[in-house]
Amino acid sequence: MIGVDTAGIAEQLGNAADTATAIPQLAAETGLDVDGAYAVQTALLERRLDRGERLVGLKMGLTSKAKMAQVGVDEVIWGRLTDVMRVPDGGTVTVADYIHPRVEPEVAFLLDRLPEPGEALDSFGDAVRAVAPAIELIDSRYANFTFSLPDVIADNTSAAAFVVGPWSPVPDGLENLGVLLEIDGRVAQVGSTAAILGDPRRALDEGIRLAGRHGVRLREGWVFLAGAATAAVPLRPGAHVRAVVEKLGTTSLRAA
Ligand code: 0L1
Ligand code: MG
């Protein structure tokens, strides 16, 4: 991967997000591989930090078979969340600010005490202070929502916005909770938290391990999006979106 222009690719992806304009895929043409793609993701994050955004968490992507099949990629990936991406519970997003936004129901963790670098997680209860239902808004910067694995990693795993519902203490089991995604009061997707790597707690192990490979350590106080429990649904102007997770409650957003 000699001579890949990390900063130039990050600039193209950042501009695509800022102007809500789709761009062609970049990896095949530039020879970008997975490690190079995470370097582009870091450059994109630095671009956001330089303009005053704060890093507030980490998200897992493609943690379910439905999501992998939807986009034709079969590897778990991770991306960065900043404060500007967070929408208040019940808040409004503007569809025109995005290229082709989709929404998906997720489970969020509020992180607490995490293992030292290189160490595995030995107590989920120590690492997670609270859990909540969440909605992730994803928006690939690539035309037709089509990409290769390095392309989607470089594009910060399509992260665009997220909403987190009320936090609750970690319940006894998280591995098979019913999940609904409603649009305008109608059920659009039905799933189970089992779709998230068999158990969303596993997503945290994977997040620590995979981000650690790239020198990224999860932090106390961060939000961690464990992944979607169903396929994502296109977001249209005027829609009211609600995610319901058994035992955890609901969260919602409106689209203008
Ligand atoms: O959060 C996700 O699972 C999205 C990962 C990237 C693939 C996509 O844009 O659907
Ligand atoms: Mg997601």
Automatic annotation (TrEMBL):
Family annotation (InterPro entries): Fumarylacetoacetase_C_sf (IPR036663), Hydratase-Decarb/MhpD_sf (IPR050772)
Molecular functions per Gene Ontology: 2-oxopent-4-enoate hydratase activity
Gene Ontology CC, one term: cytoplasm
Superkingdom: Bacteria
UniProt protein name: 2-oxo-3-hexenedioate decarboxylase
Lineage: Bacteria, Bacillati, Actinomycetota, Actinomycetes, Micromonosporales
